[in-house]
Design a protein that fits this description.
This protein is an alpha+beta fold. It has one domain: 3-Layer(aba) Sandwich (Aminopeptidase). Helix content is 30%, strand content 38%. The protein has a seven-stranded mixed beta sheet with strand order 1-2-3-4-5-7-6, with helices on both faces. A hairpin with a 2-residue loop joins strand 2 and strand 3.
């Protein structure tokens, strides 16, 4: 059975992340990545005024996303769903919310970096209209040194 059949699709909400969410967010991050962001990095994102979102399922954080908006551009800094709740559309919900917020801020382009080996994420981004415009050499930490990043962009229609 695939995971989405084991974990029913329940109603979720997306709200602003707060300091009380950081332990759950950090736990999801540690379980999702070999080289996770630290608790302090998430705290700094809140302090910096980035748009930090938490996806809530049954009262608990099941995903999160962080968007930086500056100088007329938006940059997705992090987007992740709990490994227990993948393949339920939560990542897409978070991505849609980030794009909505970027458009609402009159941003015309939204950027992100992704590991070329993260085929699931790349599939979602392509589905949503992102395309690769560059590569950043040695961007990500890896066990055997560094891994490049693919830089993706999507043009946004600004709400009037």
């Amino acid at each position: 059975m695939i995971m989405s059949m084991l974990k029913p699709k329940l109603p979720v909400t997306i709200r602003e992340m707060n300091n009380d969410d950081l332990s759950m967010v950090s736990d999801i991050e540690r379980r999702s990545y070999e080289f996770p962001w630290s608790h302090g990095v998430f705290h700094d994102c809140l302090l910096a005024g980035n748009q930090c979102l938490a996806l809530i399922r049954e009262g608990h954080v099941a995903g999160y996303a962080i968007l930086s908006v500056a100088a007329g551009e938006a940059h997705i800094l992090n987007l992740c769903t709990d490994p227990e709740f993948r393949a339920l559309g939560y990542g897409e919900r978070l991505l849609d919310e980030l794009m909505y917020r970027a458009r609402s801020a009159s941003v015309r382009e939204i950027f992100l970096e992704v590991r070329p080996t993260n085929e699931t994420a790349i599939g979602l981004y392509r589905k949503k209209g992102f395309h690769q415009i560059a590569a950043r050499p040695a961007y990500y930490q890896a066990h055997d040194g560094r891994e490049d990043a693919s830089v993706l962009v999507k043009k946004l229609a600004v709400d009037s």
